[in-house]
Amino acid sequence: MNTITKTLDHIEKWEISINPLEENANEFWCLNYLWQGMALLAHQVQKFELIVQEKLDPSFTCSFSGNAIQLEGIPQDLITSYFDWYAVSACKYVKLICKIANNHGAALNKERTNSHAERIIPALVTYRDKIASKFCYTSHNKQDNKAEKMMSIMPQLTFDDNAFIVAAYQLLTHGSNSASLTKLSLTETHKILTERYIGSSQ
To answer: Does residue 1 register a pLDDT over 70?
Structure first.
Protein backbone atom coordinates (compact mmCIF):
# COMPACT_ATOMS: atom_id res chain seq x y z
CA MET A 1 0.00 0.00 0.00
CA ASN A 2 1.33 3.45 -0.96
CA THR A 3 0.99 5.60 2.11
CA ILE A 4 1.86 9.23 2.65
CA THR A 5 2.26 11.31 5.78
CA LYS A 6 -0.28 14.10 5.91
CA THR A 7 0.02 17.01 8.33
CA LEU A 8 -3.45 18.02 9.45
CA ASP A 9 -2.41 20.76 11.85
CA HIS A 10 1.03 22.37 11.91
CA ILE A 11 0.45 23.98 15.32
CA GLU A 12 -0.92 20.91 17.10
CA LYS A 13 1.53 18.68 15.18
CA TRP A 14 -1.24 16.36 14.02
CA GLU A 15 0.14 13.95 11.42
CA ILE A 16 -1.42 10.83 9.93
CA SER A 17 -0.21 8.14 7.53
CA ILE A 18 -2.79 7.22 4.92
CA ASN A 19 -3.32 5.91 1.43
CA PRO A 20 -4.98 8.97 -0.11
CA LEU A 21 -6.79 6.89 -2.74
CA GLU A 22 -8.35 4.55 -0.20
CA GLU A 23 -8.70 6.42 3.09
CA ASN A 24 -10.66 9.60 3.78
CA ALA A 25 -10.94 10.49 0.10
CA ASN A 26 -14.31 12.15 0.65
CA GLU A 27 -13.10 14.03 3.71
CA PHE A 28 -10.07 15.43 1.90
CA TRP A 29 -12.21 16.39 -1.07
CA CYS A 30 -14.39 18.39 1.32
CA LEU A 31 -11.35 20.04 2.89
CA ASN A 32 -10.06 20.96 -0.57
CA TYR A 33 -13.24 22.61 -1.84
CA LEU A 34 -13.81 24.41 1.46
CA TRP A 35 -10.28 25.80 1.48
CA GLN A 36 -10.50 26.98 -2.12
CA GLY A 37 -13.66 28.90 -1.29
CA MET A 38 -12.19 30.34 1.91
CA ALA A 39 -9.04 31.46 0.10
CA LEU A 40 -11.09 33.15 -2.62
CA LEU A 41 -13.18 35.04 -0.06
CA ALA A 42 -10.07 36.15 1.83
CA HIS A 43 -8.46 37.31 -1.42
CA GLN A 44 -11.54 39.34 -2.35
CA VAL A 45 -11.73 41.05 1.04
CA GLN A 46 -8.00 41.79 1.01
CA LYS A 47 -8.35 43.34 -2.45
CA PHE A 48 -10.89 45.84 -1.14
CA GLU A 49 -8.84 46.47 2.01
CA LEU A 50 -5.89 47.48 -0.17
CA ILE A 51 -8.10 49.86 -2.16
CA VAL A 52 -9.15 51.62 1.02
CA GLN A 53 -5.63 51.63 2.45
CA GLU A 54 -4.39 53.50 -0.63
CA LYS A 55 -6.73 56.38 0.24
CA LEU A 56 -5.43 56.75 3.78
CA ASP A 57 -2.55 58.56 5.44
CA PRO A 58 -0.47 55.70 6.88
CA SER A 59 0.59 57.88 9.81
CA PHE A 60 -2.97 57.86 11.20
CA THR A 61 -5.08 55.06 12.62
CA CYS A 62 -8.60 55.30 11.25
CA SER A 63 -11.93 53.63 11.87
CA PHE A 64 -15.02 54.28 9.78
CA SER A 65 -18.12 52.64 8.35
CA GLY A 66 -21.32 53.36 6.47
CA ASN A 67 -21.21 56.37 4.15
CA ALA A 68 -17.63 57.41 4.95
CA ILE A 69 -16.01 58.91 1.87
CA GLN A 70 -13.10 56.48 2.19
CA LEU A 71 -15.53 53.62 1.52
CA GLU A 72 -17.02 55.15 -1.61
CA GLY A 73 -17.29 52.50 -4.33
CA ILE A 74 -16.64 49.65 -1.90
CA PRO A 75 -19.34 46.91 -2.06
CA GLN A 76 -19.96 46.75 1.69
CA ASP A 77 -23.03 44.52 1.39
CA LEU A 78 -21.07 42.00 -0.66
CA ILE A 79 -18.14 42.05 1.77
CA THR A 80 -20.59 41.40 4.61
CA SER A 81 -21.79 38.34 2.70
CA TYR A 82 -18.16 37.24 2.33
CA PHE A 83 -17.86 37.23 6.13
CA ASP A 84 -21.00 35.11 6.46
CA TRP A 85 -19.90 32.60 3.85
CA TYR A 86 -16.39 32.41 5.27
CA ALA A 87 -17.63 31.82 8.82
CA VAL A 88 -19.79 28.88 7.81
CA SER A 89 -17.08 27.28 5.65
CA ALA A 90 -14.27 27.82 8.15
CA CYS A 91 -16.23 26.22 10.99
CA LYS A 92 -16.94 23.17 8.81
CA TYR A 93 -13.26 22.99 7.84
CA VAL A 94 -11.88 23.17 11.39
CA LYS A 95 -14.38 20.60 12.69
CA LEU A 96 -13.58 18.18 9.86
CA ILE A 97 -9.85 18.44 10.55
CA CYS A 98 -10.56 17.51 14.18
CA LYS A 99 -12.77 14.59 13.15
CA ILE A 100 -10.08 13.13 10.86
CA ALA A 101 -7.43 13.56 13.55
CA ASN A 102 -9.64 11.79 16.09
CA ASN A 103 -10.35 8.93 13.71
CA HIS A 104 -6.65 8.35 13.13
CA GLY A 105 -5.48 8.93 16.69
CA ALA A 106 -3.39 11.93 15.64
CA ALA A 107 -4.56 14.04 18.57
CA LEU A 108 -3.01 13.20 21.92
CA ASN A 109 -6.37 13.79 23.56
CA LYS A 110 -9.53 13.36 21.54
CA GLU A 111 -11.56 16.53 21.44
CA ARG A 112 -15.17 17.03 20.45
CA THR A 113 -15.35 18.83 17.12
CA ASN A 114 -17.49 21.64 18.52
CA SER A 115 -15.07 22.19 21.40
CA HIS A 116 -12.14 22.18 19.01
CA ALA A 117 -13.66 24.87 16.79
CA GLU A 118 -14.53 26.98 19.83
CA ARG A 119 -10.91 26.74 20.98
CA ILE A 120 -9.30 27.53 17.62
CA ILE A 121 -11.69 30.17 16.22
CA PRO A 122 -13.94 31.30 19.10
CA ALA A 123 -14.96 34.66 17.62
CA LEU A 124 -15.78 33.07 14.27
CA VAL A 125 -17.88 30.32 15.87
CA THR A 126 -19.93 32.87 17.78
CA TYR A 127 -20.37 35.02 14.67
CA ARG A 128 -21.50 31.97 12.71
CA ASP A 129 -23.94 30.86 15.41
CA LYS A 130 -25.54 34.24 16.00
CA ILE A 131 -25.30 35.92 12.58
CA ALA A 132 -23.76 34.04 9.65
CA SER A 133 -25.72 30.77 9.62
CA LYS A 134 -28.89 32.41 10.90
CA PHE A 135 -29.89 35.67 12.55
CA CYS A 136 -30.32 34.92 16.22
CA TYR A 137 -33.00 37.61 15.99
CA THR A 138 -35.17 34.96 14.30
CA SER A 139 -34.34 32.10 16.67
CA HIS A 140 -35.91 31.02 19.94
CA ASN A 141 -32.65 30.12 21.65
CA LYS A 142 -32.94 31.38 25.23
CA GLN A 143 -29.17 31.81 25.36
CA ASP A 144 -29.42 34.67 22.84
CA ASN A 145 -30.13 37.92 24.67
CA LYS A 146 -31.96 40.98 23.33
CA ALA A 147 -28.79 42.90 22.50
CA GLU A 148 -27.39 39.97 20.51
CA LYS A 149 -30.67 39.57 18.65
CA MET A 150 -30.70 43.23 17.66
CA MET A 151 -27.01 43.21 16.79
CA SER A 152 -27.49 40.24 14.47
CA ILE A 153 -29.62 42.30 12.05
CA MET A 154 -27.65 45.55 12.26
CA PRO A 155 -24.98 46.61 9.71
CA GLN A 156 -21.78 44.94 10.86
CA LEU A 157 -19.00 46.08 8.58
CA THR A 158 -16.36 48.55 9.77
CA PHE A 159 -12.92 49.44 8.42
CA ASP A 160 -10.53 49.53 11.35
CA ASP A 161 -6.76 49.18 11.67
CA ASN A 162 -6.36 48.64 7.90
CA ALA A 163 -8.86 45.77 7.75
CA PHE A 164 -12.57 45.18 7.35
CA ILE A 165 -14.06 43.78 10.53
CA VAL A 166 -17.43 42.81 11.93
CA ALA A 167 -18.67 43.06 15.52
CA ALA A 168 -16.54 46.17 15.97
CA TYR A 169 -18.77 47.61 18.66
CA GLN A 170 -21.05 46.41 21.43
CA LEU A 171 -24.75 47.07 21.79
CA LEU A 172 -26.31 47.73 25.19
CA THR A 173 -30.08 47.45 25.42
CA HIS A 174 -32.78 46.14 27.78
CA GLY A 175 -30.19 45.36 30.42
CA SER A 176 -28.22 43.10 28.07
CA ASN A 177 -25.16 43.48 25.86
CA SER A 178 -23.66 41.90 22.76
CA ALA A 179 -20.26 41.27 24.34
CA SER A 180 -20.25 37.65 23.14
CA LEU A 181 -19.77 38.98 19.59
CA THR A 182 -16.16 40.11 19.42
CA LYS A 183 -14.16 42.01 16.82
CA LEU A 184 -13.41 39.78 13.83
CA SER A 185 -11.18 40.29 10.77
CA LEU A 186 -11.67 37.84 7.91
CA THR A 187 -8.22 38.36 6.41
CA GLU A 188 -6.43 38.04 9.76
CA THR A 189 -8.43 34.91 10.58
CA HIS A 190 -7.50 33.39 7.23
CA LYS A 191 -3.84 34.15 7.84
CA ILE A 192 -4.00 32.35 11.19
CA LEU A 193 -5.77 29.33 9.70
CA THR A 194 -3.31 29.22 6.80
CA GLU A 195 -0.35 29.06 9.18
CA ARG A 196 -2.10 26.32 11.15
CA TYR A 197 -3.38 24.09 8.34
CA ILE A 198 -1.25 24.90 5.30
CA GLY A 199 1.96 25.68 7.15
CA SER A 200 2.58 29.10 5.65
CA SER A 201 1.06 32.56 5.84
CA GLN A 202 1.31 32.86 2.07
So the answer is: no
